[in-house]
Amino acid sequence: MADIENDYAKVSRRDVFGLGSAALAAATLTMVGERAANAQQSASHTAPNEFNPGQVNGPLAAENPDSEWSPSTDSGTVKPFKYSFALARKRVESGGWTRQVTARELPISTTMAGVEMRLTAGGVRELHWHVEAEWAIMLYGSARITAVDQEGRSFVNDVNKGDLWLFPPGVPHSIQGLGPDGCKFLLVFDDGNFDEFHTFLITDWLAHTPKEVLAKNLDVPPSTFDKVPKRELFIFQTGLPGDLKAEQAQGALGTGSVPKSYDFKASTMKPTKVTRGGEVKIIDSKIFPVTPISAAIVTLKPGGLRELHWHPNADEWQYYITGKGRMTVFAAGSTARTMDFEEGDVGYIPISNPHYIENTGDSDLVFIEMFRTSEYQDISLAEWMAHTPHLLMNQHLGVGMSVLDNIPKDEVVIRPV
Ligand code: MN
Ligand code: MN
């Protein structure tokens, strides 16, 4: 073993980079045991100063190649900006389950929090409300959603995969899975400290109000409330809802329906931008008037790049729906960090910190960008370069005047164009 250590000591990282492939293969052949296994993880990181003795968590390293060996452009300490729903505890009830990623799990995510929820066919997320606005996207199946606004106006509708809803702060609502197999969806709230387990539930409230007060409130006998559950239902199994049109008419009797719909059919919306590299749907209050939260739903084809950019008006909360990608966040002061993302991962970028997202897999990468602002805004590196005097830009970067002249004048959003 001592001899092998000595062999390695003669080969610095710089030397390895300078070796021809034959010499590199010969160097690799001298490896034994753990060392060979370690080298297999990344053929270009075989020098002794990069060897990681002892046990390694192979699957986690394989999922996070840019953490295992970061690009040489990464530098310094950047606050962690990734957390996976796969690490969050599921609360399982008779009608489904839920789990959350908030500022408690991901401390940098101060402005927004996310919740995944699965409801069976007939499973109900109990009637409730909360201080925060609730934005949602249906990921699987269908649901019936209901709400009542401050004028007593009713909202009842069915939402399908890819569609959105927005419940304003304080507006009471419910979600119920439909046939054949219920649904799964993502909720996003406009406060990082939101807690799905501390919302105002109708059963919890009534269980903590004197029965004689409930009786007086509705002018009925106290025994009317004998069957109110002693503990919250939260998510529970029951039968499927009634006919949609009949339930809409019942809710609207006397007061009518909400004037601006709480749902948005993003599944059938024409993309805001399409390029060879993918497409983006931008949904903010310009087209979904009730929302105080703006969103971009991005699809990157293999090799596609969400171009270098930043957002001048809000932090960005991300959720990865499918595929594999990586993102580098430049945090100023010569600090930058690259992390890898896949389905169920949450990413977070503070306001005005520049970043890109690259599809590193062999299938489409689909993710959403969320912002606690009603108006979506971004500034891209390319549009900055195109619209600054080219002489001045070239004096900084030396890329050549023709490169600057050829940058498209309109923001491309996704490369290749
Ligand atoms: Mn809610
Ligand atoms: Mn962004």
| Major sheet characteristics | 7 strands, antiparallel
The pLDDT mean sits at 92
Output the strand order for the largest sheet.
Answer: 1-22-19-24-17-16-15
Low-confidence stretches: 1-41
Question: Could you give the count of β-strands?
Answer: 26
Approximately how much helix is present in the residues?
10-25%
Described by its quaternary structure, the protein is single chain
Q: Per the principal axes of the C-alpha atoms, what is the gross shape?
A: globular
Total helical segments: 12
- Span of the ends, CA to CA: 54 Å
Give the structural class: alpha+beta
Rg, Å, rounded = 26 Å
- Spell out which ligands are present: manganese (II) ion
Strand content: 25-35%
3D structure, described in words:
The chain is of the alpha+beta class. Helix content is 20%, strand content 32%. The strands form four sheets. Strands 1-22-19-24-17-16-15 form a seven-stranded antiparallel beta sheet, with no helix packed on it. Strands 2-3-4-11-6-9-14 form a seven-stranded antiparallel beta sheet, with no helix packed on it. Strands 5, 7, 8, 10, 12 and 13 form a six-stranded antiparallel beta sheet that branches. The chain is globular. 34% of the residues are buried. The N terminus is likely disordered. The chain binds manganese (II) ion (2 copies). One manganese (II) ion binds next to loops.
